[in-house]
Amino acid sequence: MNPTHRDTPSRDTQPRDPQTRDPQPRDTDTRERILAAGTELFGKKGFNGCGLSEVLQQAGVPKGSFYHYFSSKEEFGVVLIERARDEYLAELRPVLSDRKLSPVRRLRTVFEHTRDECAAQGPTVECLIPKLALETGNLSEPVHAAVRSCYQLWSALLAQVIREGQAAGEIAATHDADRLANVLVMLWEGAAIRMQIDRTIEPLNDFLTFVFDTLLGAPE
């Protein structure tokens, strides 16, 4: 809050209209620096492998600034995961809802886009959510739930497009759309892990070939 000006008595004795108060400016830059540092370091070292002191050192902010925005490392982790989730899904939705493309073409496009990003950034790129997903056995329930929700929402978006593909006769109606969507996510995550092991994007290319030439090939 703004400090009270004691040299103006009327301001001490007369109530101020809340609507006329100047809102306190929020230091969004400090919060963004903390979030950016957390995203990078947790993506590299994992949630349990990185301490808050390292995050704050990279962000260049004092410890007190962290607790101004987040009550704990756990809450910070949930905010990071939800932010990464929302950013990723915001990229997917325009493509998956583009009715100018066929359902299968939409599905293929979102995976090709991520493949191209990995090719541009290098096959050893480490993303926050997949990194934390590997730690779920050691994560607290709120952080684990946040990671799980990312995959559930991703699968739900894919399942909707799969249903559209089935209605259009592009995808076999014998597939359970929700289960197939979960399988696609699992296959992709496995390919992404193998990409980092082999240090090549070929596992992602293999995913695209198998899924769209075989698994989602033209129904009989």
Question: What key phrases describe this protein's structure?
Answer:
single chain; 220 residues; mainly alpha; Arc Repressor Mutant, subunit A; Tetracycline Repressor, domain 2; 2 domains; 10 helices; 0% strand
Number of self-contained structural domains:
2
Contiguous runs where pLDDT drops below 50 for at least 5 residues: 1-26
Mean pLDDT: 84
At the fourth CATH level, what is the homologous superfamily of the largest domain? Tetracycline Repressor, domain 2
Q: Beta-strand level of the residues, as a percent range?
A: under 5%
CATH class of the largest domain: Mainly Alpha
Tally of helical segments? 10
Give me the secondary-structure category: mainly alpha
How does CATH name the architecture of the largest domain? Orthogonal Bundle
Number of strands: 0
Our Rg estimate from Cα atoms comes to 23 Å
Q: How does the SSE layout of this entry go?
A:
Blueprint: H1 9-13, H2 28-45, H3 52-59, H4 63-69, H5 73-96, H6 103-121, H7 128-133, H8 141-167, H9 177-198, H10 202-215
